[in-house]
UniProtKB/TrEMBL annotation:
Protein name, entry field: NADH-quinone oxidoreductase subunit NuoK
Keyword terms of this UniProt record: Membrane, Oxidoreductase, Transmembrane, Transmembrane helix, Transport
Membership in a protein family: Belongs to the complex I subunit 4L family.
Membrane topology label: Multi-pass membrane protein
Lineage: Archaea, Methanobacteriati, Methanobacteriota, Stenosarchaea group, Halobacteria
Pfam family, one: Oxidored_q2
Organism: Salinirubellus salinus
Length: 101
């Protein structure tokens, strides 16, 4: 017996809300990136659940594209975090308002 689609949707909503809470409350850039990853994974859960429910592979293909997007986002984000740490010796995103050439 398969797990109902509603369970996946509830799981996805919970993971998305945790990621959104992390983005809105954290100042650390690493925690900010991890929260964005949680939100992207919640979208992937939705895509795969609906793909399985409708019996086609379109959602799974879009999920692979989302994973590629997440990998690129992490690469750029780590670069930004390294610049933050070099200039301010901290990864607090509120100090980045004075970042200039």
């Amino acid at each position: 017996m398969a797990v109902p689609t509603e369970y996946y949707l509830v799981l996805s909503a919970a993971v998305f809300c945790i990621g959104l809470f992390g983005i809105l409350t954290r100042r650390n850039a690493l925690m900010f990136l991890m929260s964005v990853e949680l939100m992207l994974n919640a979208a992937n859960i939705n895509l795969v659940a609906f793909s399985f429910m409708h019996g086609n592979l379109t959602g799974q293909v879009f999920s692979l594209f989302t994973m590629a997007l997440a990998a690129a986002e992490v690469a750029v984000g780590i670069g930004i975090i390294l610049v933050l740490y070099r200039n301010f010796e901290d990864v607090d995103v509120t100090k980045a308002t004075t970042l200039r050439w």
